[in-house]
Amino acid sequence: MKILSAENIMKRYGEKTVLENVSFHIEQGEVVSIIGPSGTGKSTLLRGLNFLAPPTEGNVYFKGGRLSKQNIDEARRKMVMVFQSFGLFENMDVMRNITIGQTDLLKKSIPEAEDRAREILKTVGLSDHAHHSPKQLSGGQKQRVAIARCLAMEPDIILFDEPTSALDPAMVGEVTAVIRNLAKSGMTMLIVTHEMEFAKNISNRVFFMDERGIYESGTPQEIFDRPQKPKTQAFIFKIKTFGFSVKSRDFDFIAMLNGIDDFCFRYAVDDKKAGQLRLLAEELVLNIVVPRFGACELALSFPESREAYHVSVAYPGEEVDALETGDELSVALVRNTAKNIERAYDGERGVNTLNIDV
Amino acid sequence: MESGAGTQAGGADGACWREIMLKRTCIILFLAVAVTLPFAGIFPVFAADGQRGDKQRDWEDFKGKTTAVMTGSVYDAIAEDIFDASEVLYFANQTDAFNAVKEGKAEIALYDDYETMLAFMGGDYDDMEIISIPLDVVHYEKAVFSTDQPLIDKYDEFLEGIRSDGTLDAMGDRWLYPESSREMPDIDLGGGNGTLTVATSGTRVPYSYVGDDGELAGFEIENATRFAAYLGMDVKFETMEFAGLIPFVLSGKAQIGANWVSITPERAESVIFSKPYYTTGACLVTKKLAAQAESGEEGSGFVAWLKNGIQKNLVQENRWKLIVNGLGVTLTISVSALIAGTILGCFVCFLLVRRTRWARIPVKIYNAIIHGLPMVVLLMVFYYIVFGKSSVSPIFVAIVAFALVQGANIGVILKNAIDTVDTVQIEAARSIGYTAFGAFRRVTLPQAIKVALPGYLNGFVELVKGTAIVGYIAIQDLSRVGDIIRSRTYDAYFPIMFVALVYLAIILIMVAVFKLIIRRVTAGRVTE
Fold first, then answer.
1. According to the CATH classification, is domain B45-286 in 3.40.190.10?
2. pTM higher than 0.90, yes or no?
3. Quick one: closest CA in B to A46, which residue?
4. B420: nearest CA partner in chain A
5. Which end of chain A lies in a sparser environment, N or C, as judged by fewer CB atoms within 10 Å?
6. For residue B447, which residues of chain A lie inside 8 Å, CB to CB?
């Protein structure tokens, strides 16, 4: 059963067209993730569906009915939204945040609403926080209350607008866990997210957005493992790659090391491997290539199988093997860590590349 | 688990408390000053009275001195032309001019009517001396004035009548001399020809002043009442500062002005004077040469001073009723302006939060005008220009003017308070099905009110204090009543202090009430 459909949605802000001819259907029980680079209209699409930013043109159908400014308030009760920055009502405690919609809009009695709220709080793991003020909660707890507030409306679909983007990395898990449980229970959800692992694991379908619309869509495997169109491929490659370019000898090497750490954390690289990658990058860039050539491009990536990690360093100049002229101790360290080392030279551009598998 | 919320509420309360404690500190300081003022004020008078000699002084000895005169009177011309004063100090009424001499701020004060001065100087003025200025040096003719020539013709006709039948002389005997009875006779009014509106000061003994039970009395009051009876009309008096009399009649708010006003060429250019009914000379008031030691015996110490002050300023002639009425007027204006201003402020705020520029521009202009004008000027503009030709009550005009100021302030306070509520909360409310108004009522408003209340309270306190200027447009509020009593009792300190204490009391009560409301609104919301 189609629960939500978009038909030729267009959104313009003044001269700028953000979305153009976007159409799709969401089936009951589907979980659809929306991914893509920043500024490609992911949040705009979501806010267009529930008319927080009504589409300039096009139609949205919810449970068969066409949405308009007249019926949107009614429809939103069943098509709720979770925001990046929570939006808990700060003049109310957790319990009242969850009951107020029920009593005001669903016309439930207070005891009825509170019973339901307690049930929902249990499912999001916050039973003992019912009478806390929003100010007393951590980010992860706030987002779980926001989800609970939505669930209290007994919605047919939940729209998630980057639900974990405002959270400390350590708190992302508690929110994604709640969303996973919702998916298991058959809740229909549309999720804008930057958490690729999460999107891949939870979704039935993935929309990749670019060029003012849904650029490519498919199953998580299709999008993440075998993307067909060039921008999707580039995006997926990029998220699986850490790149850092060094322009001068006094580059910010702390930023580089930090980036490597982030990348390893994001893809759950184990500590031993992460240490090796870090050491390799440090020796190659800091002690071997940059002192002599003054600039380089570093890239870290891994194949889907994760059998090996791939480190490449590109540096300009005549065809030269940096490992042969580098600091002996450093070169030894690199050779010991690497499983396989290859060197290539692109004569036209004058670029040497060292490809190392770990 | 409630501690966090408690701290939060406490934080807001704490800020509010600090504000109130600051106010209290100011009040205590003020009280300390107020209590020491009479001593500080009175004793230097005795101490400064150290000149020696009993030589009879002549008016010509006082040329080239610092001279106190009443604003809008004719005396500043005498001060400049005849006395060649080194400096002329202007005061709103004659009492203040006399007090300036008493306190040594000026050496002489000028006044007309040597006889009436002799009759009414007493009590606090025992250490003062009145010196006559001969008629051939300066004299004045007293008359009523209007902008309406036929009315003045009628008055001249009426004057002819009372002069010939002896009524005018009887009026003089009744009011102007030390042995006069000064009791208003009964005059039959109401011939069905409407109402004669008369502008008068109410602070000029014995011509126009507030007597027993707060009723206007005096020579000019009788004069105008008789004239109204002659015309077959009822009479209505509007009281205001002396300097406001002529503008008031010019604006058409009163048909006639009667306040023992002297005819001068300048005045005759703007208004039409009747034929004169009295000619008077002038006098000057200065401190007696010899120290008046015996004046110390009447008031030894604070308690005696207080007793005497209460008797003279509050009990005598039931003057406390004036205070009660004045307080009523002050509260009526303040509370009405607050209510109207709050409604207006909500509307202003509503326009300010609009995204469209055309909605904000009129509000910006309105705010700029309201904030750019001193309150007194704004009040006068409203009274004499905006409502110039209409006969609405001055209290209504004051309420409108103060409500406009409150509206501008409250609008901005509310707007800023609403801005502190983050928009995600509003979007979150909308996204689960609340209408725009529902989200505002449930989410924005409760949070905004909490933020706005302290500023709102401050605004109200400023409003109550600000209403003290309505005396400018013929309203007898608490402050003006203080002036009226002072003009009657010639007591420089007690009425001011008493009025100050009444203001303090009502403001403290208001602050307490508002604090209660703030508690109600902010408590038990977050942690229920």
1. yes
2. no
3. B431
4. A90
5. N
6. 90-91
